Recover the amino acids of this structure.
């Protein structure tokens, strides 16, 4: 009898662990869209720091990220326990914010010239080269800015994960959110550390006597800025797809439209299967662009009205 109870308990534990593992994979897949932008933003935050201070700065931001998630995970669980109806509105707000961030990046790309961006970078480089500049203060400002950015992105990740496990018991919710929080933090900041030291590795190898090492070093030096640009592009696209997908899945008219459009595309001879698979993604991305543009318009109008009100006083 005792052995049977023990086996039943072990079976229940194994079942719970299977559920946690499965839902962690689902949550990780849904939050992966934020990862590209998280990587690009955090890697950009530590640019301009002295080479020997890059890893300490990344470590400081990583610790701040863990503190952010230590606040966000309990808050998410409390929301799920006492005001679960708030989860979908929070998901919608998070999705709209992702779309807004993506559209703001596009707007900056088209409204600001490459010369303006280059001039800003030159001013930053000149300020960092100035011996009168307090580098400790610069580091602290960068760390604070990166932790603020991380808080927003971490909130998006936790809310999206919470939406995935909202129907599960408390223990599974807690386990999945903690796993996602730890995996995302270690994954993001491990990769950020690798990205910011990529050019250093390239420079080190380029000075070796081996022709292969020098060639690899030059390749890494050339790849570092391209990798940053690629992550930025992928992150922006992911913002529209993930943000638009969150809104579409929680807004019935758009969800039904996407399903109907996918079914129609599935009837196209030869390529129907491919078109059916990509149609919802394309619709999510287009919805994300539209929502992002609308939110940016509202934010711009509100800021202008605030500016006029402040000027009047």
């Amino acid at each position: 009898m005792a052995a049977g109870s023990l086996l039943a308990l072990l079976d229940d534990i194994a079942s719970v662990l299977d559920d946690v593992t499965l839902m962690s994979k689902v949550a990780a897949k849904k939050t992966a869209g934020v990862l590209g932008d998280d990587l690009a933003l955090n890697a950009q935050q530590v640019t301009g720091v002295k080479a020997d201070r890059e890893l300490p700065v990344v470590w400081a931001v990583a610790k701040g990220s863990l503190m952010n998630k230590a606040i966000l995970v309990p808050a998410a669980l409390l929301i799920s326990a006492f005001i679960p109806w708030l989860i979908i509105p929070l998901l919608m707000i998070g999705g709209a914010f992702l779309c807004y961030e993506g559209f703001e990046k596009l707007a900056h790309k088209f409204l600001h010239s490459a010369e303006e961006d280059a001039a800003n970078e030159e001013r930053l480089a000149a300020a960092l080269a100035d011996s009168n500049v307090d580098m400790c203060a610069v580091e602290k400002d960068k760390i604070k800015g990166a932790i603020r950015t991380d808080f927003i992105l971490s909130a998006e990740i936790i809310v999206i994960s919470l939406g995935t496990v909202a129907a599960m018991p408390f223990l599974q919710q807690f386990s999945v959110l903690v796993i996602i929080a730890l995996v995302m933090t270690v994954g993001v900041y491990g990769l950020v550390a690798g990205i910011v030291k990529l050019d250093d590795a390239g420079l080190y190898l380029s000075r070796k006597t081996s022709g292969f090492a020098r060639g690899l070093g030059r390749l890494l030096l050339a790849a570092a800025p391209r990798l940053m640009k690629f992550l930025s592009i992928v992150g922006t696209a992911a913002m529209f797809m993930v943000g638009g997908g969150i809104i579409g899945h929680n807004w019935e008219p758009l969800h039904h439209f996407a399903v109907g459009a996918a079914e129609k595309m599935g009837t196209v001879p030869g390529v129907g299967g491919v078109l059916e698979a990509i149609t919802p993604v394309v619709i999510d991305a287009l919805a994300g662009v539209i929502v992002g543009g609308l939110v940016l318009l509202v934010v711009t109008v509100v800021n202008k009205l605030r500016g006029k009100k402040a000027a009047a006083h």
In short: The chain has ten helices and no strands.
